[in-house]
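Postdoc handover notes: sequence design on the structure in folder B. Input tokens:
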């Protein structure tokens, strides 16, 4: 197995975490969960993403069969939809942390 960032083993979970951990990848997948979007609509939904970075990330996600170019814009593939239950669990966790005031104090984070 090929090595990936942060891992010399290249285990499948490390490869997936490397892919999903790249900046903007999860946000793009999240925004496309509601349906296909054009490039401009996706860029607008992702707020401050540059066109160059969005283009690069879409190429990456297409190469991994997570996003496909459809007649009405970019959309999730069936493969990407298998991530939805996991992303929804993370969403619920984040909502619970927020509601309970369990987020750490950012000023206390070591840098």
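Designed sequence:
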């Amino acid at each position: 197995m090929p090595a990936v960032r942060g891992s010399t083993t290249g285990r499948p979970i490390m490869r997936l975490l490397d892919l999903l951990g790249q900046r903007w990848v999860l946000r793009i997948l999240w925004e496309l969960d509601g349906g296909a979007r054009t490039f401009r609509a996706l860029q607008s939904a992702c707020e401050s993403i540059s066109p160059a970075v969005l283009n690069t990330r879409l190429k990456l996600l297409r190469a991994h069969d997570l996003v496909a170019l459809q007649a009405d814009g970019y959309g999730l593939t069936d493969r990407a939809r298998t991530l939805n239950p996991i992303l929804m669990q993370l969403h619920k966790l984040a909502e619970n942390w927020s509601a309970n005031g369990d987020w750490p104090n950012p000023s206390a984070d070591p840098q």
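Context for whoever picks this up: The longest strand covers residues 67-70. Don't rerun without checking with the PI first.
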